[in-house]
Amino acid sequence: MKNWKYQLIVPNVAETTVREYLHEYLLIPKHLIFSLRKAQRVLVNGNYRPMNFPIHTGDRVMLDFIPADFQTPFPHVIPDASKPLKVVYENEDLLIVNKNRGDKTHANQPGEVGATLNQAENYLQPAADAYMVHRLDQQTSGALIIGKNPAVVPILVRMIKDKTVKRTYLAWVHGRLNQPTGVVNDPIGRDPNDRRKRKINGVHAQSALTNYRVVQSGTTATLVSLQLQTGRTHQIRVHLASIGNPIINDPLYDPNSQPGHPMLLHSWKIKMLTPFYYQLLEVYAPLPPEFNM
User: Which residues are the active-site residues?
Assistant: First the structure.
């Protein structure tokens, strides 16, 4: 039977219990903690201990996850060897890849291939599988996190939700921005006139916040660095268009978009602590050639 084991050393933290260490420090969901406890697959210094047992700095904790712990232990992604996967970082739990512009993050239809997740499945087999953690728009290139086992996925999703994974984007936009740094915080909802699009104060609008910083200014275009404080669909694209600086060649929000030309939005940097082991990680996805304007 396939399983996923972790041998961890409790870091220099205040005295805590097994349950607090698993849930509050490692960010393991409660239903997985229940499975580990029920089957006694969490050991402290080689012995099973109850969840309220105190643990201390330097204690050895072993976790053993099995497929039955997960609703979908295996993703059943079809491997696709038609394109090489651009791996910029890899450890036992995750990949960070440089997604190709024009490729989907994941397939949408049964039997569909060609997405980045299909490429990752081909790269990882037979030792591991590719699990989706988050997505990039089809026309956005750059750094994308992919899980390698089901235990790490909910932790990565929680870290992204809590904004402890810092993602920085670069974009070339039309025109010049009025300020070198700024914040756009207009709510984003669905566009009632075009199901593909989102708009400011659209249907069922939700709060959205984007930070930007000017990196380079030209006469007709500006390179900006962007960080999201929320994760709405098309957030960067809608916010930049709303302030009069749409992303160059954005097929939905740039009225001067040229068919066949790439949208100039790239997921450039990911800064995070690795799940379970909490090692600082800062990874850059090389810029595509069209960014050399």
Answer: 137
